[in-house]
Design brief:
Elements lengths: L8 H4 L9 E9 L2 E6 L12 E4 L2 E4 L3 E8 L4 E5 L4 E5 L5 E6 L4 E9 L10 E6 L1 H14 L1
Parallel strand pairs: 1-5, 4-10
Antiparallel strand pairs: 1-2, 2-3, 5-8, 6-7, 6-9, 9-10
C-alpha cells in the first residue's frame, strides 16, 4: 500500500506535508500515448479521488515506486533506460516495474507499440524532483482534473 499520507495540506498552504516514501502509479497505454493514475488525497489508488495525468511523469525523490502497467488497445513496451528496466503493457493484464528514485533529474521514458515502428507520442520524460516540487505538481494535477 502506498502512503501519500496527507499531501492535501499543500493544497491550501505551503507545507508542512508528509514526504512520500512509497508510491504506486497506474500507467496505461492507449491511442499511442501513456496516461497515469495516482492516488488522491486519501492516499489510496483505485478510489474516486485518484488523479489522472499525461505527458511527463513526475515522481518524488527518495521514494520506492511501483509502476503498474496495462493497455487499453495494442501491446506496448515501457522502458526506463537509465535504470535498465523494460516491461510490457497488455490489455486485461497488469505488469509491474519497481525501483527507487535515488536522485533528481529528467530521464527518458521510452515507449513502443509492437506494430513495427515507433510512435513519438510514446516517448516522454520521467521527472524525479524534490518532495516539495512533487507536491506542487500534485496540486497542479488536482486543479487540472
Amino acid at each position: 500500500m502506498l502512503s501519500l499520507l496527507s499531501w492535501g495540506a499543500c493544497m491550501t498552504e505551503p507545507g508542512p506535508w508528509n514526504p512520500v516514501e512509497t508510491l504506486a502509479v497506474d500507467v496505461v497505454g492507449h491511442d499511442f500515448r501513456w496516461s497515469y493514475r495516482l492516488p488522491g488525497e486519501d492516499g489510496v489508488l483505485g478510489t474516486p479521488d485518484d488523479l489522472r495525468a499525461s505527458g511527463p511523469l513526475h515522481l518524488p525523490v527518495g521514494a520506492d515506486i511501483e509502476l503498474r502497467l496495462t493497455s487499453r488497445d495494442p501491446v506496448y513496451q515501457l522502458e526506463l533506460p537509465h535504470l535498465g528496466l523494460k516491461e510490457i503493457a497488455v490489455p486485461e493484464l497488469t505488469f509491474s516495474m519497481e525501483f527507487s528514485t535515488d536522485r533528481e533529474g529528467s530521464f527518458e521514458l521510452r515507449g513502443d507499440e509492437f506494430c513495427g515502428y515507433s510512435h513519438p507520442s510514446l516517448i516522454t520524460t520521467l521527472v524525479v524532483e524534490s518532495q516539495a516540487e512533487f507536491h506542487d505538481w500534485l496540486d497542479h494535477a488536482k486543479r487540472a482534473s
